[in-house]
Amino acid sequence: MEQLEIPSDDYINPGHLGCPGCGASIAMKLALKALGEKTIVVIPASCWGVLAAPYPQSSLDVPILHTAFAAAGAAASGIRAALDLRGDTETTVLSWAGDGGTFDIGFQSLSGAVERNEDCLFVCYDNEAYMNTGVQRSSATPFGTQTTTTPGQDWKKTRKKNIVEALAAHRIPYAATANVAFPEDMIRKFQKAKGLKGGSRFIHVLASCPTGWRVPSEMSVKVSRLAVQTNVFPLYEVQDGTTYILNYKGNRGVKDYLQLQGRFKHLTDEQIDQIQIQVDEDWDLLLKKVG
Amino acid sequence: MKKVLEGSHAVSEAVRLARVQVISAYPITPQTHIVEAISEYCANGTLNARFLCVESEHSAMAAVIGAASSGVRVFTATSSHGLAYMHELLHWTSGARLPIVMADVNRALGPGWNIWLDQTDSLSQRDTGWIQLYCEDGQEVLDTTLQAFRLAESVNLPVMVVLDAFFLSHTYEPVEVPDQEQVDQFLPPLSPRIQLDTANPFAIYQMVAPSAYMEMRYNIQVAMEQVTSRFSEIEDEFEAIFGRKHGPLEAVQCEDAEIILATAGTTASTCRHVIADLRDKGEKVGLLKLKMFRPYPTDQIRRHLGHAQKVAVIDRNFSFGASGIFAQEIKSALCNTDVRPAVFGYVAGLGGRDVTPQTLEEIYRQTKTSKIPKDESVWIELNQELVESWSN
Amino acid sequence: MKKKQTSKDQLPLFIPRSNTSTQINKTGSWRYFRPLYEEKTAPCSAACPAGEDIPRIEMLVSQGLFKKAWETILDENPLPSICGRVCFHPCEKACNRGELDEPIAIHSLERFIGESAISSSKSADLKKLPNNGKKAAIAGAGPAGLATAYFLSRLGYQCDVFEAQSEPGGILRWGIPAYRLPEDTLKKEIKRIEDLGVHIHCETPVTEALLQKINQKYNALFIGCGYGRPIKLRIPGEESAHDGLRFLHQIRTGGKVALQGTAAVVGGGNTAVDVARTLKRLGVKPIIVYRRRRQDMPAFEPEIERARKEGIELMELLTPIRIEEDPGSTSKSDSSFKMTLQKMKVSTKEIRGRARVIPYGEKTKTLQVQHIFIAIGAEAEVLWHLPSAKNNNQLTLSHSTIIEQEIPVVFGGDLTNETKRVTDAIASGKQAAIALDVYFKKGWDSIEESLVNCRVGGGPALSMAAYLNEERNNRKPHIVSFDEINSDYFQSAPRVISPTLSPDQSVRSFSEIEATLSKRAATQEAERCFNCGICNSCDYCRIFCPDVAVMVEEAERYINLDYCKGCGICVTECPRNAMALEEEKK
User: Fold this and answer.
1) Residue C418: which pLDDT band, with cuts at 50, 70 and 90?
2) Which CATH class is domain A23-290?
């Protein structure tokens, strides 16, 4: 593990309504540790819409603008424009959307914002389904997953959308993946992103969801870590859409990752092999880009 | 200084004079001239503002919501499908109590695709909590836009300034464009009631339980109820500086009228000529030009229409399964009064079809010769051949 | 009546806007399980006869807190510089790290800590009870006696050690050669014990007369005289052979010896190996003759390996049956001997893990040598033999036997220990000290129970820190296994290699073969330690807590039970099993 100082201040309060073991709350905790108090967070409809707490409470010690589901990218752009006009170029505008608000309904406004190279940090905390509304599938749901809208034998037969690649194609200054089980790496990336002011930065964080993934709550960090160790969720960075940096080389079979989770319980050995082939393909592609 | 401006540019001049700080918009005919002009002001430094060329109208409204929440004066403009696309966020803006000003160019909704005048787009947003002000000519557009900022910032409600597609947006007229100093006198810089601030962090627009939601909604209505008096005061201030006043509606020769024509937008201009002609012929006719639609000026409607025998409402819009919307609202306003006219609803000029003086005379004639309305809404000058073509 | 508002008056806004934090929601009520910090026992500590708190020691070294690490050793073992050199280190065999890559070089670290302390001349801050007015007599200044004196002093007893030889140390001085344990190191380690107020009276053997005085003037007696009498082969011609232990003693006193040619060293224990390697350094060609096989030799395997590398031959499965003067020799100065050796073979039966050997028929072998050394073991002097009859007032413990006489008498060290090694002798001393203290404070019947209460893991090692009710007393006896270590947190790293002389260089003198680790090497090696079962403030429990419910105050961690939802992440992620999850009591 990297020897990085993890900042000790927290900007998240206890007493929030996250499920026990919620990976998304660990993600926010680590993100804000890295970004500090001069951060304004935009939260579209998502688990964090609830985690941020209902009126009259707030679970964060930084300002939050709640917006409609599709609107995070644009709302963040608006805040940025206003701050710049008021002479504040220091405050980080953090768009904090779930996979729905990034990959699906929010994709348009995110793509629009980063095409304009808006000076914001766009983060997707990805629990791989519409968890807040009850575990329905999203385009971030991996191949092989059972959700409430891909139940039983109708488990999701299409691959997870590769959001980092989609955004790297916009040639933004910085895109990266991060994982709550690798806190030093995650904090490094958030601090790096914070420092790369002037353009769009995107970080895709895998945020385990014990409730939706059907893992015991105490395995929340371990299962996140396995995603990286099995190359299902590689840790890497893309600078300017062209330079790829690989942060970790996993060497475990996907079965180690899949067998821990109830959402994959139905898979046969052949289907697991199929998933292994897909993961290997994607990994080889990534290695080619790393060069 | 008097300039010859098309209606769109009356809007953009007002936006410039109002020292708007963030504009975000998506182009749609016939709003495009508004935003193109503003883009140029931003590019050449005439206006010290940021123009966000977003990728959709929904994002345009989201962006100005974000900017307004951060304490700057904002503006957007749209039309028709663009307005419909933003619908969710129109509700959001009023619930968020943000003083956003938007120009809507009244255009028909498809299919079929139709870029010309129709009032259904803005009227079908009447439940979203926006103040709606309908303009008749270029001068009124400029004046109303400037007043809109004062009004919005006074009550923390969003204001929609509405102008007819092409008949107003693309028609050149002489317009008195005020000086910047005069406008600065009338419209001081924004003192934001809501401003995201890391030095004083809070969360806004989060979940609200049933125990408080209703009161927040009531708070919006309480603000709406202040609009009429505040608008009047603002118009007085405007008149004191610029010498012009339009009023929340305008009653033309209504005091002794037996029949009153009621309509909004450029149609009102045509009506002025028609009632002048009719008066010359001895007809006791008047015109009630409708401007403020939300909040609904119930008292004024009752006052101006109550004593007439008949009201002929010309709607260039329609709510399917019910009636023309202006007519519906007038009926609703008159319902609980003791003495009230019969309300004749007419649907005319949808999708840019002309409403000529002849059309209006025909409407007057039908109203005069009917004891009671034949239908809740009568569709005027339909092409019978086309109608019959589908019946056979 | 409402005052008419103007357009400039602010309307009251009632909007969704926060004015308080979520801290008012005590989500602790959601819990079914509650995490807690619960330190457990590391396998190395349980394997160490002295019960040293090894995970904590290595943690302190990795943090650069060498003095604290030293004090942690001294809590349980007064002789780190010595044990770091000569202990068989069973801790390393038990080390969990061994299942990931290689065990921690615990003995090298212990030596490093001991040496650091010596060179920095700091004095240790150790818990010491006030003087209780009681006096203890200790017979023998070997490791058992020295340890007893050390521990009893800390418990408040005035100690006098009576030693027959001219210098203290016992086997440490007389039985272990300088290339394994330099005299200077030994002196400094013993001085520290004397600095506690222990008086060592050399050249004062415990005679019958002295025993009687002790019975009158002292409150307790510890007997750790060890095995002084060499065991004989009882074969013809044995008188021509030298005793191995005596030989080593002679070398240590600086006696000059003139030896040349070849020497046979009979035996398989450490003494035999030490004799052979000493001879090598004196220019003699030694041959070790052992009746069993190499793998059966009780000597320390690394020492056997070193001996082999130094060129010392090992002849297995041979035992001498006769020693004769070689008819070929003419004068006493170049005398040589003919040894007749019986060939042995392994029988199918095993006794206590060691192969049983039987003569291989009539097969013999002869060996011509100039010198013969016998090092097949020793036994106690008759006076010190344990009484065979079991009395009511006798308690046999794992490393000592205590008898209630006029004064309580404790036998320990090699006299009682099954495993006759230095660290076991130290364990003896500690056990004796605690047993005596319990006897005086609570009585005979409380001894066994009190000892159980300060066991490390399941015993038999004891912890003085636990006995003195320090933090260590809270350690759970559960021994952490490798499966309970979260190996996700550790990457393979090679074990440190101590700088070592080559065999050629080694045999040229009696200088130490292995050097002490550098500070950097020691710190790096200590960082490999998992710190099984104890908290090393890695902070991952706090980093991962989704509910900000892990609090830290002055390096102490605790769970904020107002908010902890009992998700269990902290317990699962703790790399070293220093936490536990218990059912929430409703």
Assistant:
1) confident
2) alpha beta
